[in-house]
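Hi team,

Below is the intake form for Epoxyqueuosine reductase QueH from Candidatus Brocadia sinica JPN1. Please confirm the fields before the structure is written into the shared record.

FORM ID: S-0412
PROTEIN: Epoxyqueuosine reductase QueH
ORGANISM: Candidatus Brocadia sinica JPN1
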Amino acid sequence: MNLLLHICCACCLCAPLNELRKEGFKVTGLFYNPNIHPLLEFRRRLKALRVFQESDPISVIYCEDYGLREYLKKVNYEGDDRCADCYTMRLEFTAAYARENGFDAFTSTMLFSVYQNHEQLKMFSENLSKEYGIDFIYRDYRHLSECSHDIARKKMIYRQGYCGCIFSEYERYKDTTRELYKGNNPHSKDKESTRKVLNTKDVLQRCDCFG
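The structure came back. Fields below:
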């Protein structure tokens, strides 16, 4: 059976791909993730998937356009259903692509992540399967999450710190703090290695442009 596998990231692909192959599926990947922001993060995840391909060849269809505008148009990012809108956007694209390009079925690595709403993803996929007339392959591989991460570490594949959108990045890092402009040696008496943050008044006083 020719299976179109939506890939959210290389890390979530590692272990599930092996299991799907053991079941006899001929797997083709689809990287379609307009939710991933900012641009540099999007590029990191594209590169991570290509690094994965070097050690474990898999045919992948890449949608490489940075999807900021598409994401903002389709997702109600001010409401409580932001994730549901994001799931639907990516899954619907996958189901439609599978039907239009002769695949027998579709599924997504999002189902294999312990960080996503599993039941919601399953329900949306089943509804899209009926709407588009294409089989949906349901598997619960969440128990392979740590195994997948271990494989990613061994392959030295980039592992992201948040789901994908700019809002999930904020939620992931909003409570973190760090010292800015800190010297390499906090105990050093070398004044050149000690930096301080200037306030606005200091900056203006030191800038010739403002007299």
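SUMMARY LINE: The longest strand covers residues 26-31.

Thanks, M.
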